[in-house]
């Protein structure tokens, strides 16, 4: 990305969100990170805001606060997400389902709705949503997560259709399982099943996902709109398979 931009990255307390913000800041962009809480360790060159992304009032206040400081967002990257809570579909509590939908789909919608008018006025915008390969393949014991990320793809594609004529692109990155510390919390059968669907036979590295985000946010990707870019080691080539060890009630 050659032209300096004003960029908002959500989920900067997470590994991927933090890496994305760091890459943009290092490249000389004006970067704001947004997450539920302030980070324990600030990122050099990144301003941090704290807000519940599923809270309409909080999201509006955050964007209004940026505008009051003379900052209008040119690039929005939605990295924030809930992940985990591995249950067979019939065991997923409604509260769990609702919270995943609120954070993973409602939150990006609220932010996109807030920043799109400024992007339209500027005649330029980049929106990059970090979804998941499970949003198109399904996610074993993760119906709540897969469904929320599928909703994010539908939202992203619609924005691409509606706002492409205004110089705005909206794209998704679809990571496979990312090698982050939280991966160790996943049940062994979930990890084994996921790795068995990856031709590369390894997990995605956070910087590989961040690099894909950076490309879709850049000036050079202006003719890339409404895509879902897998960063999954080739697992999109395979049909979702259930091994003989998997049991419905687990």
Automatic annotation (TrEMBL):
Record-stated family: Belongs to the short-chain dehydrogenases/reductases (SDR) family.
Signal peptide bounds: none
InterPro entries cross-referenced by the UniProt entry: NAD(P)-bd_dom_sf, Sc_DH/Rdtase_CS, SDR_fam
Pfam families, alphabetized: adh_short_C2 (PF13561)
Single Gene Ontology BP annotation: fatty acid elongation
Record's keyword annotation contains Mitochondrion: no
Protein name: SDR family oxidoreductase
An MF annotation (GO) of this entry: oxidoreductase activity, acting on the CH-OH group of donors, NAD or NADP as acceptor
Listed Gene3D superfamilies: NAD(P)-binding Rossmann-like Domain
Oxidoreductase found in the keyword field: yes
Organism: Nocardioides marmoriginsengisoli
Keyword terms of this UniProt record: Oxidoreductase
Domain of life assignment: Bacteria
């Amino acid at each position: 990305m050659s032209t300096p931009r004003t960029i908002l990255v959500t989920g900067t307390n997470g590994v991927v969100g933090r890496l994305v913000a760091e890459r943009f800041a290092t490249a000389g962009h004006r970067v704001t990170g947004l997450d539920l809480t302030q980070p324990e360790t600030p990122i050099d060159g990144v301003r941090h805001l704290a807000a519940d992304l599923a809270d309409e009032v909080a999201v509006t206040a955050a964007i209004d606060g940026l505008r009051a400081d003379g900052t209008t967002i040119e690039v929005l990257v939605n990295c924030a997400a809930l992940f985990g809570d591995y249950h067979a579909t019939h065991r997923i509590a409604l509260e769990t389902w609702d919270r995943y939908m609120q954070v993973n789909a409602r939150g990006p919608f609220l932010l996109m709705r807030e920043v799109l008018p400024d992007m339209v006025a500027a005649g330029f915008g980049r929106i990059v949503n970090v979804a998941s390969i499970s949003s198109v393949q399904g996610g074993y014991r993760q119906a709540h997560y897969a469904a929320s990320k599928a909703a994010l793809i539908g939202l992203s594609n619609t924005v691409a259709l509606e706002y492409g004529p205004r110089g705005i692109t909206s794209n998704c990155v679809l990571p496979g399982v990312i090698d982050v510390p939280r991966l160790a919390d996943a049940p062994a059968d979930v990890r084994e099943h996921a790795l068995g669907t990856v031709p590369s036979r390894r997990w995605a590295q956070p910087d590989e996902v961040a690099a894909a985000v950076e490309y879709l946010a850049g000036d050079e990707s202006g003719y890339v709109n409404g895509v879902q870019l897998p960063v999954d080691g080739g697992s999109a080539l395979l049909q979702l398979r259930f091994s003989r060890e998997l049991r419905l009630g687990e």
